[in-house]
Amino acid sequence: MPNVMRPGGPARLKAAALEFAGVLVEDGLRETLRQLAERNRQHADVLYKLAQQMLEETGYLVGGCTHVEFWQALQRVLPLRGRPSEFSDMVVLNYALRPRVVASVRIWRNAGLRAVLLCDNTDWLDRFEARHKIFQEFDGVFNSFHMHKTKRDPAVYEEVAAKLQLQPSEILAIDASADALGVARKVGYQTLLFGNPDRFMTAFEEVLGRNAGKAGV
Asked: In terms of domains, do 35 and 133 share one?
């Protein structure tokens, strides 16, 4: 079971910051690239790694280009049959919402604690929101595409804490990326590595039991 890491000793939590892809929803980009790899007889893992590289090199992850430019850059390296608009539609459709995680967020907020989305994503998230209206489940949304920096930058976590008017140690970062959580811990956040929904529910309920009614917000 994933454990909550407390870099500065036990502290009462007042907010949770959840990643979107891989936590709130299935990783739509990974699934899309798996489908494209199968269609184009490519290796899915190689294609996913290359796409991650292109997200940063093109600047798409921080709002530096359009989805069309991102996909065209990827197609210049590996031939992928299809149009950029089709690929982005696939990503958004493959963001399968995890109802149990949404339910956890609602329980968390009903207990008087805050929850925000803190994600390295693009305007794919905006397109998902247009269809599903999920932002209403949160007290704020922080997306690298609009912040113009990713979670590799400690300033992202500092900015979120400042916006929430909380100390970093009062915020629980929930992510499927151990690297992202490593940065969060250096800033002072408590962290929870997302493995799968069942283990997440168990760990999250334990955290909630220790903090419900103590938020003071």
From this structure: no
pLDDT in tens, 7-52: 444 568 999 999 999 999 999 999 999 999 999 998 999 999 999 9
Q: Are the C-beta atoms of 128 and 160 separated by less than 8 Å?
A: no
Of 47, 56, 128, 144, the C-alpha closest to 88 is: 128
The answer to whether residues 104 and 69 touch, using CB atoms and an 8 Å cutoff, is: no
Q: Are residues 192 and 100 in the same domain?
A: yes
Amino acid at 93: L
Q: Residue 14 in contact with residue 114, Cβ under 8 Å?
A: yes
**Is the alpha carbon torsion for 120, 48, 30, 200 positive or negative?**
negative
- How many C-beta neighbours within 10 Å does residue 179 have? 10
Number of independent structural domains in the chain: 2
Tell which of 48, 69, 93 closes a domain: 93
pLDDT tens per residue, range 112-130: 999 999 999 999 999 999 9
CA angle at 153 for the pair 205 and 150, rounded to the nearest 5°: 75
pTM of this structure: 0.89
Domain extent, residue 34, equals 28-93
Considering the domain architecture, whether residues 58 and 19 belong to the same structural domain is answered as no
Local structure of 8: helix, strand or coil: coil
Question: Is 145 found in the same domain as 88?
Answer: no
Domain co-membership, 104 together with 202 = yes
